[in-house]
Design goal:
This protein is an alpha/beta fold and 239 residues long. Helix content is 49%, strand content 15%. The chain folds into 2 domains: 167 residues, 3-Layer(aba) Sandwich (Rossmann fold); 52 residues. Helix 1 crosses helix 2.
């Protein structure tokens, strides 16, 4: 039986001009994850990451910590299958459609636009974001030229199958990705609905890890959203 570990990337630069890079907190989170595993002698037979900068940076920082502590770490392969769903495109192109039809989303959008407090602004954005993405996942919102939720799930499933098939017997594999692909992996292991899958994507903390056990056709959840390496509560973030 092999183990597949999916890591949600460390904290990116939320609401900054360039989101897709780790912020200072994210860098701390990634290093602590590497230290946690390396000091416990966790060795991986293969390692991968999604293609985003935040994915690659998180994986590289874990690898660097392993090297610094004299531990081996496999070469990190970038895997497009573990990219996040096209959230920015859905929000940018789909929001105007939803604003014209949904009073709820209009209210959430107005609150976000008018809010001046940084903390409240993040919360208002998340509420608006979840509402729009929820309509996209359910099929209520169609965005031309953008990967559909169904196609996204199929893509991630292909990536998981690739990892499972390439894993060595009793070996551990690790992939740094985003909350969406982790949710799809949970769906695969628990046979979840699309709506339940989406709800799980909101729960993954930055730099948390989720473990699955694989043997033959079996793909079983072992641990979800673990973060024992983040003992300081200030490091427990979602964005």
């Amino acid at each position: 039986m092999s183990r597949v570990i999916l890591v949600r990337h460390a904290q990116a630069s939320f609401l900054e001009p360039i989101y897709d890079k780790l912020c200072a907190t994210g860098e701390v989170q990634a290093r602590l994850l590497g230290e946690y595993w390396a000091r416990r002698g966790v060795l991986f037979s293969c390692a991968g990451s999604g293609p985003r900068v935040r994915h690659v940076q998180t994986a590289r920082m874990v690898e660097e910590v392993y090297r610094e502590l004299g531990r081996e770490f496999p070469e990190v392969a970038v895997m497009n299958e573990f990219d996040e769903y096209p959230a920015q495109a859905v929000l940018k192109l789909g929001l105007p459609q939803v604003l014209g039809k949904s009073q709820e989303v209009r209210h959430l959008h107005r609150a976000f636009e008018q809010c001046k407090d940084a903390g409240e602004r993040k919360r208002d954005f998340q509420k608006m974001f979840e509402a729009v993405i929820g309509k996209w996942v359910s099929g209520e919102l169609m965005v031309d030229g953008v990967e559909s939720w169904e196609d996204f799930c199929a893509r991630v499933d292909r990536g998981i199958t690739t990892i499972v098939n390439s894993a060595t017997p009793s070996g551990d594999s690790v992939v740094v990705t985003s909350g969406g692909p982790i949710g799809v992996a949970m769906r695969r292991s628990l046979n979840l609905s699309h709506a339940d899958t989406l709800q799980l994507t909101w729960m993954s903390r930055n730099a948390s890890f989720t473990e699955f056990l694989s043997s033959g056709d079996r793909f079983t959840l072992s641990t979800f959203n673990a973060h024992p390496h983040l003992e300081d509560e200030s490091l427990l973030t979602y964005r």
